[in-house]
Amino acid sequence: MNIKINILRAILIILLIMLFMTIFNFSSQDGEESGSLSREVTNRVTKDIKSIQELEKNKKEKVLGEIEHVIRKIAHFSIYTLVGILMMSLMSTYDLKQIKRVGISFGVGVLYAISDEIHQSFTPDRTPLVSDVCIDSCGVIVGIIIVIILLKLVQKIKNDKLT
Known about the structure:
Blueprint: H1 3-28, H2 31-46, H3 50-53, H4 57-91, H5 98-121, H6 130-162
């Protein structure tokens, strides 16, 4: 067996484990801790937006709450896009049909998203949401597509160099 492939697989597995641990840690935060982190990110993103900062307090809080909600959903999508990228990269190191690589990558991503929401149901002031599993699943799909496109581009470049 090719040692380079084994090293690549080991690196991808370690990165996936680290990413799953990060997701688990985020889901372990109680509602207050998670909310304050989201609010901190929202404040940093909006601190230089004059039209938001000049709103009266009640309107500003409402707008910031809406932005915070969007930021939370973008975070879900983004971290699961990375799950899709790492899973599909790992699966691409195996001699499998593309549909099987995609299926395994998607299956693992969705199963982890479901388990993550179940985990949140045991965390104080957190609520499991089917909509978050859907957002996470879309992120996984995008990650898978990114890897497929990148691998096709690499293959095309290799083929072009040979001709």
